[in-house]
């Protein structure tokens, strides 16, 4: 009895060991081979793919297998597939009998389950390996459904050359997805894994046709297809050689490779948010412009289109893709490249100053020759307006007003604001950039720049959705993975910029004259309203244009990836036409809704754009952000006293108060006035004081160059002698005579036009100017010595 009990225990132990061995004999995961990176459009169509790390075209596991392939592969390889548990013993007995009769391997008995095991193990086949495959195939069938087994087979079967898996084979041999293949095409693919090294497209074509036709006949016998379908399928040609896979978004595919971990995606295949038709049209447009630009040595351009409504990327062209021309550097993704932004940050400064109560939309900004700590910004046209409304300075992209505005706003504050806009490339302290920050002194990426404008547009679009409040998630990054998890809504009473500020900024950005339209585009009812801004970096290295409607943000860049500058490479000439052609590919939309509860009607001085003071002559009522109430009153209107004929200024010391006429007068500082009056014919210069009247202490002269306490350098001429610097002063009286002195030494006299060429020695000097009325201007400047 005890002996029998021991036997039972030993048998149970043996059975348990065998059961454990059986259970753990199947490796997990079954396949650890690398797969190709695959990028699909939002409709599931293939956009781009790259070869796997082991040099094979092997797509990730698909969700299902096309019905045609199921019928073909089961009929050809394993007709009792649905009736066995991994091993087809009927086929085994048949194979043994046939092989014994032929005295060689004339027939096999591998089921599809066994073939999947063999593909996963990749070991040399022996009788023992065959038995192991049978064992593991049974174990395989225990854990996997028949559909899962077919899916694994279809994804890992060899199809000749370096093509692995049905999806890769379908694209390589037929240029389209497997579900779109005909019976003849699917039968051709189904027979390839049987002997992929001997029979494949481009090799042994006649044998491949025979095998395909035999399979089609079997499908007729099994009543899967009819005879007519089989005959038509036999007439189809077989592919002659592998085809290149689509490369409609190669740069986005590479971006996905780099960001795969951050995106928390566990497969190398993603369905993107890209609109397939728009992407192809944008590729065509990019190639068209590349052909045009290449004649001028401009090799690279990129375009990004984002759907504002949901924040999804609908088109992504990182460069004009020309892999066969390596000198073009078309592999560089310019959407993620760090480049100088030129003037494209100016709207963000304009919006920040509106939002924080520094200016109103049309506040006059100084536009005169400027020196700030040795830094001398220049307008692109090298001219000066004297003073210009802030919104017009933005639309004309003037550099000096932008620097003046940043000087007022403080570059440290603007730097912090850009950080909140999520510009990832500002990795140095604010002092490193200084005032050049507004003129392209930093680096940005197209991605970050587009996301900044996307956040503003989304915020304004959501004005009604959140009852005037703000969702901080609006400033989150755009996304390109279709099912990517969206950030949670965080509703706050305030945001980076308020609705009224954004609306005012977009209106200012809309007023730019479009290239080729000569300012008349607004007269056409079909014209799309677009807020847009161009940018050109120093040395003509980068041309930018970014634009938006309530539905889309479009950002384009034109230039050379290696940073070489080219004549004519400007935002308005190169990038803007490209951007507007991109907008023509997109549906039109209405303009942004006016956020009336976030705007306030206040009286504004027509001439200065400041909040109107009581003595402003002409007032306008404008919609401005409520914080505009905090801005300063107009500083340029002054109450002056005139004689009865309104010819001269007078004082009570020389003229009867009862006969005086008191008038409000628009008066700019001398330097601003000097340039402003040449561009504005309606500007009236202050009348002179009547003879014998004591003048009030108002500035009548102002130095244009050099500014007070400026350090200047006077270069040496070719002959080795020191050259001359042109000193320039503005005087309110056009007929004034000015006497010039340097260090109390007389150097010359000017009348009407007050410029003089001087060559002071290196060192510190005192400049003294005196006009015919005894008015004096004294200031200090320093001439630098190059040798020191």
Low-confidence regions: 517-526
- The mean pLDDT is 87
Using the CA coordinates, give the radius of gyration.
39 Å
Strand content: 15-25%
Shape: elongated
Lateral strand order in the biggest sheet = 7-6-14-13-12
How many strands, what sense, and barrel or not for the largest sheet?
5 strands, antiparallel
**CA distance, first residue to last residue:** 112 Å
Count of distinct strands: 26
Count of helical segments? 21
Secondary structure: helix percent: 25-40%
Query: Structural class, from secondary structure content?
Result: alpha+beta
Defining key terms:
single chain, 788 residues, alpha+beta, five-stranded antiparallel β-sheet, 21 helices, 32% helix
Describe the overall structure.
The chain is α+β, with helices and mostly antiparallel strands. Helix content is 32%, strand content 17%. The strands form nine sheets. A five-stranded antiparallel sheet has the order 7-6-14-13-12, with helices on both faces. A five-stranded mixed sheet has the order 20-26-25-22-23, with no helix packed on it. The protein is elongated and about 135 Å long.
Care to give the gist of this entry?
The chain is α+β, with helices and mostly antiparallel strands and 788 residues long. Helix content is 32%, strand content 17%. Residues 517-526 have low confidence and may be disordered.
